[in-house]
Amino acid sequence: MTIIGAAPATGRRKTPPVRGRRRWTFDRISLFVVFLVLPFLGYLTLVIYPFLQAAYYSLTSWSGFTATQDFIGLDNYTRLLGDATFLKAVGNSLTLLVVVPLLTLVLSFALACLVTFGGSSTGGVRGLRGSSFYRVVSFFPYIVPAIATGIIFAAVYDPSAGLLNGILTSLGFGSAEDYPWLGDASTAMAATVAVIVWTFVGFYTVLFVAAIKGIPAELFEAARLDGAGRFRTAVSIAAPSMTGALRSAYIYLGIFALDAFVFVSVLNPGGGPQNSTLVITQQIYSTAFRQGRFGLACAMGVLLAVITFVFVGIVFAVGKLLGREKKAEVLR
Amino acid sequence: MTLTTTPTAPAAGTPAPERRSPPAERAVSATSHTVLSIWTVVIAVPLLWTLMSSFKTSREIFASPFSLPETWRWQNYADAWTTAGIGKYFLNSVVVVACALVITMLTAAMSAYVLSRFDFPGRSLIRNLILAGLTFPIFLAVVPLFFVLQQLGVLNTLPGLIMAYSAYAYPFTVFFLLSFFEELPAEIAEAASIDGASEWRTFFQVMLPMARPGMASVAILNLVGLWNQYLLPVVLNTVPDKFVLTQGLASFSSQAGYNVNFGALFAAAVMTILPVLVVYVIFQRRLQGSVAAGSLK
User: Fold this and answer.
1) Residues A182, A268: contact at Cβ < 8 Å?
2) Closest approach of chain B CAs to the CA of A31, in angstroms?
3) Model ipTM?
4) Which domains does chain A carry?
5) Could you read off the pLDDT of A60-104 as tens digits, one per residue?
6) A chain contacts of residue B21, beta-carbon cutoff 8 Å
7) Contacts of A203 in chain B (CB under 8 A)
8) B124-130 own/partner pairs: CB under 8 Å, 24+ apart
9) Contact between chains at B230 and A145 (C-beta distance less than 8 A)
10) How does pLDDT run across A246-268, given as a tens digit for each residue?
């Protein structure tokens, strides 16, 4: 999960791959066939082959249940580019792509900093007491089935019987009474984003706590002796030392935000008021499995993949650029 | 460390005696605690509220979000389990997840071992194809996958679902385990083969046991991931009798509309969460540890 996009550890290889000597004995051939070839063939059939097929289907007008798959070139794509509903879905997905990682990373980075060096700074730089309790609780939403999270928050946001409006009215916000958080186009998306952020912050807090602990303690000690406050320490010491972790986190969150299918479809099955929470994945699902327009759905899938790769490319490029700047600064 | 650690205030307003810290320091750590406590409350309250609501009647739920149930209605759990079919779905989930987990762990460990220990033509191609499966959006594959399973005759069957679960957990598991097998000292495998052990025996009796910590971590991550899987069953398994738990929960919440027994719906959500909660409580340390290990790669 977290190692998406990260290169496998190559630097510390201890096991040189075996070459030659006792080459193709039955023992070794059978090992290869059963250990690698068979599982990999299964993987090719169920994962890689469908990806390739999707690319082909996207060029046909296939409805799935007819025998013919008429090749129509890029017609599906031109149709999608003129489809206002689909473009709305793309816009919403891009909004999620920007907002979800940003909010999640900022919040979890801040919490991770509080946990690791938010404690009293007399004596050694150290974390907060009882920090493991916070970590244990805040990590939990990550492993709650998303469908259950969605159902819980659909109830929390309920206009009349929901927890949120109950709390708000008892705090004196009378205007919150019966306010439909998910039923109003102006708040539906924000309410959805809040649920996704709620789910992921704890996970990334744990990740970042580990990353911060991997930074040599002397750096923090030195920063403190130089008079840096905690905020300065977080921004100038912790963040630059963990760009790798931040980048992986951003990529993983972005890929997830482009999916978001479960949350969005539980909170607002129909795409929300004025399609305000409709996302690409929901469109793919309904186009394929409700309307049976498989060719068109595959074209949407291809566009989703393209968006994903452009996004990953941008994050890597920006990461490289920032890394180079940092190096230049050090050299100066 | 221990000498300087004095109890810190759990929240602002109740400063604990801290001999060495000036007031500013205390304020900072109190603020930290306050922020973290607020976040903890934000996490815990919706979950606890769900638990409480699962014991209320629909009428009580609509009357007030805060009221405690008049009587603790365990009946909601029985209703969800039998009437709403959660029991059946639960069982389906257990079967599918257990089988898929065993298949995934075994095949991925074997493949990762071969990929890490032997050099052969096409090795990097295979590695890259496995990496590709991690990066492509599953939604792209899901439409054709439907027809692949149909052609194989396993659409809407539990075996078909097990195959799909295993195939989509395979790339992640292989990559996670690759790094573990690469860290194992090659000399041990060499020694085993000099002692006359076959390749097979070397793997099962020597190498696999050494990779146990890695296996355990990734198994827990997979267990949670497979249990929470929603997209694959929704697309590939549309016969209500064969629903897995996540699917059953979704259809329970949507199909009943306004007539739904909300107490039972909350109870169903609690029962869906309960297994992962148990796993979490037991393996919490290892789970967080493996997340942390992933961050360093």
Assistant:
1) yes
2) 6
3) 0.85
4) 88-331 (1.10.3720.10)
5) 888 766 667 788 888 899 999 999 999 999 999 999 999 999 999
6) 120, 122
7) 291
8) B126/A36, B126/A40, B127/A8, B127/B178, B129/A44, B129/A48, B130/A40, B130/A43, B130/B170, B130/B171, B130/B174, B130/B175
9) yes
10) 888 999 999 999 999 999 999 98
Q: Is the pLDDT of residue A330 over 60?
A: no
Which tens digit of pLDDT belongs to each residue from A125-161?
556 667 778 888 888 999 999 999 999 999 999 888 8
Give the model's pLDDT for residue A21.
Answer: 52
B55: Cβ contacts below 8 Å, ≥ 6 apart: B69, B72, B73, B74, B76, B263, B267
Is A121 near chain B, with CB under 8 Å? yes
pLDDT at residue number A119 = 64
**Nearest in space to B81 (alpha carbons), one of B276, B275, B278, B249:** B249
Contact B186 A18 (CB under 8 A): yes
Which A positions 140-159 lie with beta carbon below 8 A of chain B? 140-141, 143-148, 151-156
Cβ of B285 under 8 Å from any chain A Cβ? Answer: no
Is A261 in contact with B32 (Cβ distance < 8 A)?
no
Residues 30-59 of B with CB under 8 A from A: 31-33, 35-37, 39-40, 42-47, 49-50, 53
Q: Is A23 on the interface with B (CB under 8 A)?
A: no
Nearest by CB to A206, from B118, B185, B288: name it. Answer: B288
Q: Does A315 contact B at CB distance below 8 Å?
A: no
Distances (CA, A) of B175 to A3, A270, B107, B163, B180: 8, 37, 12, 19, 9
- Cβ atoms of A144 and B225 closer than 8 Å: no
| 8 Å CB contact of A14 and B145 | no
Domains and CATH numbers, chain B: 84-255 (1.10.3720.10)
List CB contacts of A268: < 8 A, sequence separation 6 or more.
A182, A188, A192, A277
CA nearest to B179, candidates A43, A203, A14: A14
Tens-digit pLDDT profile for residues A32-45: 999 999 999 999 99
pLDDT (average), residues A170-198: 89
- What is the average pLDDT across A231-243? 83
| % of chain A surpassing 90 pLDDT | 46
What does R_g of chain A's alpha carbons equal in angstroms? 25
- Confidence at residue B170, expressed as pLDDT on a 0 to 100 scale: 96
For B144-173, the pLDDT digits (tens) are 999 999 999 999 999 999 999 999 999 999
Which residues of chain B are under the pLDDT cut of 70? 1-22, 256-259, 293-297
Continuous H helices in B54-196 = 58-63, 75-78, 86-117, 123-135, 138-151, 158-183, 186-194
Task: Output B293 or A1, whichever has higher pLDDT.
Answer: B293
Contacts of A163 in chain B (CB under 8 A): 45-46, 49, 65
Token pair belonging to A223: 């920063």
